Predict the 3D structure of the following.
Amino acid sequence: MRNTMFNVLHPAPAVFAPRVGMFVLPGRKPVHTPHYLSLTSRGAVPHLTQDVMRDYTSIDSLYIALEDFIEKAPDDVPPLYKMQAEAHESTLRKFTCLPEDILLVMGPRRVPPVFTPMPNTGTAISILTSVGFRKLEAEDYIEAVRKVRPDIVVGLADLVVGLQSGIKRREKMVDRTHAYTRDATKQLYGDVGEPESESSAVYFAPVLPLENTQQMLYLDDLGDELREHISGLAVYEASSLAIVPDKIGCLPRLTLSGPKTPHEILREISLGADLITIPFVGMASDGGIALDFIFAPPLEDGSSASKPLGIDMWSPIYAADLSPLVQGCECYTCTKHHRAYIQHLLSAKEMLAWTLLQIHNHHTIDCFFAAVRDSIEAGTFTEGFLAFEQTYQPSLPQQTGQGPRRRGYHAQASGPGEPKLNSSSYDQLDDAAEKYAEAQSFVPTPDVSAEELQISGFAVKDT
Ligand SMILES: [Zn+2]
């Protein structure tokens, strides 16, 4: 394997079962797996500035989408590409002001990706930037990887987002993805014997959300011809974890399927996922929901999967509640603030509300993953999973309040002329403006006579 080291510590590598491991890249914090990758928007975890992230969270690995940065490329050079960096530096890291030891994973599209009306082609995939849909040529993607130097690059895949694909289309998906992978690895790592021109980014090859038989040739090639260039797998559907051939079973597996609940995360882990992207953490924070679950919950008699997975902080019942979001939680939010304050910040639409929730929710996920790793090592994961299912409700609570304002380009549009996703919290105060204008007309000017002043009256100061 290239510069990376991934050791499966428990159990044996080829077994498709929950496993713990250690992913190491030179210069980055080692990542204990299973672990999650925090999702970013334009290079930052939503609601967290880089210093807040450093000081108040344990986030150590990020997923960044190239489509967030390349609005008008190649006609207009995006600011990311203009950034000057030394040969040993990562332009992407410098541009996003991220610390040296954080693991940066770059993929072409956001997780979850928005459906694009333009189809992919044999040489390009369709993406959504802040100014609209366009094509990303496979060649330009490779060029971008060379230029911005992420730690890990997720290879291009010909995916059909949000639609069912027919047999012919599925064949095409495999052929194109196979070709993208072959070309990309050739261009990034060249032929053996030319180490100086090799890219420093390691390559995670996509595994398509299809049956084993449909992509057998491609998977075989990954384990054979392409094996020396591949450092990991990017899996788009949890069930694909079960079809990874033994030959590449020891590679780290990143899942991009976007689990919607902790139950789904546990299912992915039970199939041998190592790195997982979890959109619901940020979505819960946006929705004003403080996550509240642990692994493995103590199993009580008569448990009926009734415990909620989070608390809706919009609810006015917390308006005078001076307890932390979650009793016993050691995160910054829970140790410094109480529910009433968070409820107040949400009602006042203060940005700090979402920052504090994001800190707490990431801490909850950190503790969850740490406990999962311990349980795999102790051989109690399956019982823990069962106890989790018997204790917690199968879905996250519904949000009742409105989230922060959104630019909306990264959310699915319902059609042309769609209204703003979250309406503005502030508006013209027409009534007040009228009253103000009226009051203005009575304000005396310097040339007003004493009699007129007497009529309009004087302000009285309370002493
Ligand atoms: Zn907390």
